[in-house]
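Supplementary Methods S3. Complex input for the adenosine-5'-triphosphate-bound model.
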Amino acid sequence: MNVSMPATIENPEKKTQPDKDMTAAVVSVDNVCKSFGNMKVLDGVSLSISHGETLAVLGRSGTGKSVLLRLIIGLVNPDSGSISVNGNNFAGLALDQLGEIRKKMGFLFQQSALYDSLSIAENVAFPLEHHRSSMSKAEHDERVKQLLDEVGMNGDSTKMPSEISGGMKKRVGLARALALEPEILLLDEPTAGLDPISSDEIDDLVLKLQRERKMASIIVTHDLHSARKISNRIALLNKGKVVIEGSFDNLQQSEIAFVKEFLRLS
Amino acid sequence: MFPSSLVYSVISVMGPIITGLMVSGRVGAGIGAQLASMKVTEQIDAIEASAINPYRLLAATRILACILMMPLLTLAADASGLLAGWFAQTLVEPLSIHQFITSGFQGATFNAFLPPTFKTMAYGLIIGLVSCFEGMRTVGGAEGVGRAATNSVVLSSLFVILADVVLVKLILVFFT
Ligand SMILES: Nc1ncnc2c1ncn2[C@@H]1O[C@H](COP(=O)(O)OP(=O)(O)OP(=O)(O)O)[C@@H](O)[C@H]1O
Ligand SMILES: [Mg+2]
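Predicted complex, serialized as structure tokens:
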């Protein structure tokens, strides 16, 4: 089911194709199972993405999309199967080795997870302060301003997380995820709770990053329209398994009942 | 009560243990609840995801602060204990604070007073460790946060009392 050169769907000039000479998997998830108690959440999931490629993960609520992202950044460990990033298998990595890999990843949490004791600007500056200590304070401020500009949040940089709306938190979380210029971007519903215009801006930002920095991204979303716009491939999860993986056209041509139902109602 | 026995009992017995229990209640609950709420709102996961060790960033600093502050707080508790003792004493028979202090500290040795003050660093370690541990392993929303705060207080007070029993014995063995 793995389509290596997915067909372009729309805006062919906007979306980059994965580089042919860089097709080595950046993230590869191999036959991963994960249970909580006796509830099996993921049951043999395999996925991979390469440089400059965007994979959209869709699926019903509670099928383990967020768990999948948390597995990929090593916040939870798989019961079986393996996960590797840039060729490094997570199992048996020491904490500081895992840290080196995580510095190359940007993660947006579903609930944003902003540090509530820090202001918006401090939240975005937080990864810079810890991992770019050679940069001066002025350079940090400049970078924070630029990041907040990209997500359209510059006017609120001195506010606290408790003073902004859910959609604004999402955008700040995205700015924070981008602070260290990651190679891999993991976004958990970046456009949920956003109006159509803001979500379109976020989609454009992701496309721009994909084009300019050859970023590999996995984006969990419920929005089929944005999945279609920004991703090269779509994976549909159901009951802990990947039901189908491929381009939007592949999904449309599928005869699988669940896929048809999902597309019909989206 | 003679000033000297009052001084002795405040500085070597009452001051340290009361400070230990008070800090367990105030600081233990504070650390437990704060870290627990960071845990349930995924802020600790976010720290980890940005390749920062949350134990070093959040726990180590708090534990160190507890260890360093305990002796100082104990000295403050000792001072107010002595002041209250002098006040009670003057109600019975008027005595200047100067007289009270000189007679209270007569024949006092460092061995009698330093170990009990510095043993509170161990209480600080206990309070910091227990409440950081309780906070960072919290699961389950607001209820979990409440449970973490309660557990931090109960367990750190309990361990402070246990440590006191052990440390009093050790100090007797090594410093007298
Ligand atoms: N830490 C945990 N402990 C126990 N169960 C968990 C835990 N995390 C997730 N689960 C369970 O795993 C399942 C998948 O959760 P997950 O958050 O990945 O869903 P999701 O696909 O992201 O849903 P949504 O689209 O609503 O965000 C859920 O049934 C949830 O109850
Ligand atoms: Mg989710």
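Chain B is about 85% helix and 0% strand. The mean pLDDT of chain B is 93.
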